[in-house]
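Quick one: structure tokens for this chain, please?
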Amino acid sequence: MRTAPAASVLRRGAPLSVAFVNNMPDAAVAATEAQFSRLLRQAAPESSLQLRRYCIASVPRSEAMRRKMARSHEDIAALYARGSDLLIVTGTEPRAARLDAEPYWEDVARLVDWARGNTLGALWSCLAAHLAVQAMDGIVRRRAEKKFSGVYSCAVVGSDWVFEGGDPRVRAPHSRYNGLARAELESHGYCISSHSREVGVDCFWRREPSLFLFAQGHPEYDADTLAREFRRDALRFVEGSSATFPQPPAHYFSPVAQMQFSKLKLRARQLGASQFAQRLNQILATERLEAGWAADAARLYRNWVDVATAGRARDLRSA
């Protein structure tokens, strides 16, 4: 059953506790936190948010990053002891062929099980969405022929609450090699909110009874995030740590930049890492990138917070 958003989230001054479990690779930890924090502030502008940061020890990290995160993040055990109204879990770069072979599999599976009955809502981002549905229902993601990278137009399915108040199509950045089959999700009771012919399922949800919202894309991305990922992957190719040169993100760069990337690709290994990076930076510096998906992302988060906390808001008003 699809639920309409509540008219109001929480009255001013009522604290809303949000647990943020950041599993992103070391280099992306700070940027990812800033992106999600921005969307949360947009989702509940009149409520005081108590954002607490948590980490999972089994997620691979450098010792330097572990020491740094120890000063700003708590172990996941503290979340289980304290609890939280809302939960946001990010993904990371997979290292194993199967998710259940990753070193953090059991810890994330436990978090999924805990969140079902101990939060009002939980949002699972990209790889975290894949981990969650496999842990709950055994649905295994499938490898695509090529990486989904770019900004895609997705159709909103029916009168779904996730994007209520917006247009019948939304834009969403995606950056992944794997995906979940729509038919398989629907057969297990998941509601599809947005879908694209190019990348398949975008967002979907299910009551657990916590309101679980899943995003295969990255609505939190900044305007230049896909550009930075493209630069990273191109440098990996030139340095020899990747066998293929990345395709530029779709529906993102200008035609001029696309042509320049094609020419640069032909000389990538010949130029060497330093000169290649210099020329790539010059091309990227000329691009005027905009986050055309920002309004859709803000609406998604606002609706999720509204629906997830609707019961809590009623309790506060009657207190």
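The chain has two domains: 16-222+291-318, 225-285.
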